[in-house]
Amino acid sequence: MKRSLLLSFISALLGGGVVVAVVAASGGLGESKTTVQSQALPATPTNASQHTTGGLTPHEAYVRDAPGVAFVTSTVDSKTESPFLFGQESQSQNEDTGSGIVVSGNGTILTNYHVVENAVKVTVSFEKGKSVEAKVVGTDPSNDLAVLRIPTDGLTLHPLTLGDSSAVQVGDPVYAIGNPFDLERTLTTGVISALQRQITAPNGFTIDNVLQTDAPINPGNSGGPLLNTAGEVIGINSQIETGGSGDGSVGIGFSIPINTAKQELPELEKGGTVRGAYLGLTSLTIDGSLSALNLPTKSGALVESVEPGTAAAKAGIHGGTVSTTTEDGTVSVGGDVIVKIDGKDVASSEALAGYIEEKKPGDAITIELWRATGEGHYKKLTVKATLGSRPNSVPNPDTPEG
Description:
- The chain is mainly beta.
- It contains 6 helices and 27 strands.
- The radius of gyration is 23 Å and the shape is elongated.
């Protein structure tokens, strides 16, 4: 049984509170006017390049794309209890660092939300150049994305080409460029080691379709690009799986698919916080561990709870009423079993979340479900729901909602 949407392992966020110094990273600085640097090598179409042995060598990809990788420094206010005055706090500032991707000649930089979260000041620097103050234009905490804007006067900008993450296959060679542990402009190589992973966003929601790679990425790589052999950005390096007592790479890293970012970029560039569609329930995947419940279907999403006031509540969806113990712990049963959304089969809680992820706030959906009527009997119902907007954070962090 899968509880909602979380992976069974814990992923560590990169870039936050690890590196403290400000160091120039990549790119070049001019003195007279803004220059948008065209790509040195033409981009090979993604589908033609990713699954062959051709394409750019690691060195060629580095020469071409490293100038488009920025060094991002966030200044964050922190409060600690004063060691001298009991009950009083002292305030200080820390600097967190990460990476960013130049995506436009107008000074637009794409990075992770957690790189700039709670920042009172953000600066961006490039190799052998001065740092410039950046404005956080738009954020999406649920997908760990943020867009920055920097002044372009006197800068030579190198926008990177955004590829197609849906074309990626396990075994494809990839390159990562970033600023790990304050070591500017570092290149690592590896392959795509798995697809369709899920990681937890800073606000507790789940990010789907994540790329897993064994290319070493470490604290400071956050927000930097994962490249295919055509030199195109296919992912934004975001988290790592850690092992032992250290916080460095153990060969499992996660990148947010670039298609997720491309879909949101127009809205992020307009400013504000992007919030996805929200149904407002928690659910369990129906599998063999729930066989003792005699449910009316062998697949689907069993609703555990419904948050008051949400689209699910307004649609009359029922959550569980009885707590019971299964091989995976205590769950709430007796709620509705969702089997279809807009005519598409819902095989799991992950599939349910995926369908909602594709929608926008205000969209109307049709939900087919089974409802318990007592003594092991169920009836099939169809309800309609108008989706709301995701809240700032998951109401119950232990059970992320769709």
